[in-house]
Amino acid sequence: MKLLLIGGTGTISSAISRRALEMGWDLWHINRGNRSPKSWRAPEGPGKFYPINCDITNEAETAKELSGLEFDTVADFIAFTPDQVERDYRLFKGKTRQYIFISSASAYQKPLASCYVSEATPLSNPHWEYSRQKIACEEFLIKKYREEAFPITIVRPSHTYDERRVPLGVHGKKGSWQIVKRIIDGKPVLIHGDGTSLWTMTSAADFARAFTGLVGNIHALGEAVQITSDETLSWNQIYQAIADALGKPLKPFYVSSEFLAKTKPDYDFAGSLTGDKAVSVIFDNRKLKRLVPGFCTEVRLDQGIRETIKYVLAHPELQEEDPEFDAFCDKVIAAQERALKEVS
């Protein structure tokens, strides 16, 4: 199997890279080569790895690098806008038997008519530009499949994590470490709503096993498929699992998603919360299991979180502090407590 990943060093694509090489596949990456192997765990295995260091936004340069190459499957993990998938279409038409576009489960309608979500759920998200762009990408690719038989598969992940990234609902621009540190330091942490809305976290290792089952799968052509865990948890349970893995008590501080969305526009809580994480979802993965017989997720969240916490604590380079977000949390907590005193 000859697999090309555009990107290849992110949360999901790193896990797929490792699995592909373990399976003995030939693997190519197109990226700019800006991330060191230490930062993303370079893939190992019996398969062969071929890095292509170029900027895919330079279409002419990329076409030159791809000259003479053909692939069984090409997957793009970094395309967010229709012009980017249009570029991929030009680059890979006639050069691949399958093009996989990584979309997003956040594209599903908000608010949901039902918390049970399948590939048949309508796509519409007025709260998040990111999701609307993903929808537009899907529409372009579906048109090319219908009119020209361009061999597409659309994959919709939800909240996926690996050993480098603690999955959370509310965090700043520098990621999750500051919230982990607040738990370690015994400080309260912001949880949107009252923590009872339902969510699904998926291990990147589980995602990779499902994804490789779709690679080269003729039954996946022309299809949209969501890949998530079957485990549904409340945000209270998710944060408690993190605190338990740290061996620290959880001190939740509940703030409405609407309030957070109006506090700091540059944090884009309107999109990431109102347009995604604040909405209760229960994913129906029957379609995935029809396409990949025998697949089921193996990593329970509390187990995965323990491994993630262990890895992050052992790697100081992943412990990037965010004093701006830390101060923001303290400010929100103080403001809400003042408001409570004023009305009580």
What does this structure look like?
The chain is 40% helix and 16% strand. The relative contact order is 0.14. The protein has 2 domains: 187 residues, NAD(P)-binding Rossmann-like Domain (Rossmann fold, 3-Layer(aba) Sandwich), CATH 3.40.50; 109 residues, UDP-galactose 4-epimerase, domain 1 (Alpha-Beta Complex), CATH 3.90.25.10. The protein contains 13 helices and 15 strands. It is globular.
SSE inventory with pairings:
Layout: E1 2-6, H1 11-22, E2 26-31, H2 37-40, E3 49-53, H3 59-65, E4 73-76, H4 82-92, E5 99-102, E6 116-117, H5 129-148, E7 152-157, E8 159-161, H6 177-184, E9 189-192, E10 198-199, E11 201-203, H7 204-214, E12 224-227, E13 233-234, H8 235-246, E14 252-255, H9 257-261, H10 269-277, E15 282-283, H11 286-291, H12 301-313, H13 323-343
Parallel strand pairs: 1-2, 1-4, 2-3, 4-5, 5-7, 6-15, 7-12, 8-11, 9-14
Antiparallel strand pairs: 10-13
Helix pairs in contact: 1-7, 4-5, 8-12
